[in-house]
Amino acid sequence: MAKFAELWTEAGKNLTGIPWDVYPRPSLRRDSFYNLNGSWALAVGEKGTFDREIRVPFPPESLLSGVHQVFPDGTVLRYRRRFSLPESFRTGRVLLHFGAVDQKARVYLNDTLLGTHTGGYEGFSFDITARLREENTLLVETTDSLKDKSLPYGKQRRDRGGMWYTPVSGIWQTVWLERVPEDYIREVRFSTENQRVTLELIGPPGGTLRVKTPEGALLAEIRDSRAVLDVPAPRHWSPEDPYLYEAEITAGEDKVGSYFAFRTLETKVIGGIPRLCLNGTPYFFHGVLDQGYWSDGLFTPAEPACFDRDILAMKELGFNMLRKHIKVEPELFYYACDRLGMVVFQDMVNNGAYHFLRDTALPTLGIGKHRSDRHLHRDPETRRRFREGMESTVLALEKHPSVCYWTIFNEGWGQFDSRNRYEELKELDRSRFVDTASGWFSCGDSDVESLHVYFRPVRLPGSEKPLVLSEFGGYSWKLQGHAFNLEKTYGYRYFEDGASFMDALETLYRTEIIPAKDRGLCAAVYTQLSDVEDETNGLVSYDRAVCKADKTRMRAIGQELTHF
Question: Please, which pLDDT band fits residue 278 given cuts at 50, 70 and 90?
Answer without folding.
Answer: very high
